[in-house]
Specification:
This protein is an alpha+beta fold. It has four domains: 157 residues, Beta Polymerase, domain 2, CATH 3.30.460.10; 86 residues, Hydrophobic Seed Protein, CATH 1.10.110.30; 128 residues, Orthogonal Bundle (cca-adding enzyme, domain 2), CATH 1.10.3090; 52 residues, no CATH class. It is built from 22 helices and twelve strands. The chain has an eight-stranded mixed β-sheet with strand order 1-10-9-2-3-6-5-4. A two-stranded antiparallel sheet has the order 7-8. Helix 15 packs antiparallel against helix 16. Bound molecules: cytidine-5'-triphosphate. Cytidine-5'-triphosphate binds next to helix 8.
Length: 436
Amino acid sequence: VSQQTFNVKNILKKMESEEYKLLSEIGKIADNLELDVYIVGGFVRDLILGVENFDFDIVVEGNGIKFARELAEELEGEVIEEHQEFGTACVATRLGLKLDVASCRVEYYQSPGALPEVEASDLKQDLFRRDFTLNALAIKLNSERFGKLIDFFGGKEDLEAGLIRILHNFSFIDDPTRIFRALRFVNRYDFELGQITRELMEHAIDQKVVEGVSLGRLSNELELILKEETAAEILSDLEEFDLLKFFHPQLSWTAKQSKLASEIPWAERWVEELEIEEELAVWQLYLLLLVNPLSVAEAKSLLTELKISNDIIAKVEFIKESDKEKLELLREFNVQPSEVYNSLKSLSLEELVYLVIVSENTEVKDWIEFYLLELRRIELQVTGKDIIELGYEPGPCFEKALQAVKTKKLNGELETYEAERNYLEKYLICLKEEDN
Ligand code: CTP
């Protein structure tokens, strides 16, 4: 494909002026060093699609690390990372923006799924090593050609047609994680796979190339998928392309899981309207639903292998062991608020929201809402000091008595400090009599 000439300066101008200024400054710094410099990848793709993206991937035809140091100095920022072996560096600007700077390079794959070996090259080769045509676009930043779109492989046309196309036949074999990336982009932008791309992807899946991918990389892909707004659709695609088995043979994404997942956007809005302090980690809800078909032990060992953090594993484990029991309690006709409080108090926001989703029941939702907004905020006014004032020596009865007052208060039976104190006194007398 011959390179198309197209200028995106006017689209760039629509960006926030700070970012626009930054890009043109990068161009000028490169002018002074007589280097050609480009912004590439996701930023360019999203600029053309009109989607906000602050991933500044800068590629320079020259020494990337030297250029990064120069940028840091001129922009009064600092180099926060350097990788000599890849010729890449990361610069943080004064305004808190991050620039990933790299030298143009080609990559050689020693074996499918392995990380590539790197060698210096020109821009065209650098773009050709990338995953899809829509990610192989660059914009020149040097002053004279500022805004010139570099499109060697028809990426702009594919963007306009809504197509995900690989650049060469070995793309999925070289890097099988691109299979997952393709499905992410398909769903994120509501695009389609090009016909040949689809065939080669299916072929790569049949060849089980994903088996060669390390668990670390698989885990990374899974997390990226679960963090997409269209996670549920991507999971359906993973099921359709029979990809879930590479994570665990028993993993599936059934119509039932898909239906429950369709409640997640609603649950997100519900939590937002509650205006509570915590932020909901939505991706963990998808994870909880995804591991639903596995036993507790299977889920735990899969997530441990995938190096999912321990507190998330604990959530999965806990919810799988206890959700039925908790849901039964919340559905009971005569359940007391104190029982609800005790049953929910150790759960994170994600676990609570998960219960609402799987219960498909408004009483459960109402209880959890009541718990989040009211019950968990109830504090006693009486303290150990009141017990001492009532003439008792500190001991195990303190905890027990305060617990009893809390239960009564949670159940709405103690409105004032006096009421709490009276009940506390009566309770302590009973305790004493029992002891005698
Ligand atoms: N890339 C690739 N193969 C991969 C991963 C990345 O070719 N397995 C290339 C793509 O060209 C991509 C660039 O590296 O544009 C940067 O990768 P990344 O930041 O992961 O991707 P984005 O395209 O920016 O995707 P996202 O919007 O999801 O961040």
